[in-house]
Amino acid sequence: MSVSFLDVFTEVATSQDLPCRSYAPELFFAESPADVEYAKSLCTTCPLKAECLAGALERSEPWGVWGGQLFVQGVVVPRKRPRGRPRKSDTVTAA
Fold it and tell me: pTM to 2 decimals?
């Protein structure tokens, strides 16, 4: 009999405070890049970090912070870009 991520999560979640259970769920699906980075930092001490990431990859999660990684359109990305166009001062112009 194999043990699923959900079984392990439920067992650990009842015995420990997991970040995803201790903070508002919206934090792990935030629009703000600062909030996303905060959510990722909360995952660093989670005992289920590796299992959470593996489960998210297996399920092809479309978005959110899972196992300390950010998913955007089903792909792990290093950083969330702010909405809108970059400032002109942030772009390099060819001379």
Answer: 0.70
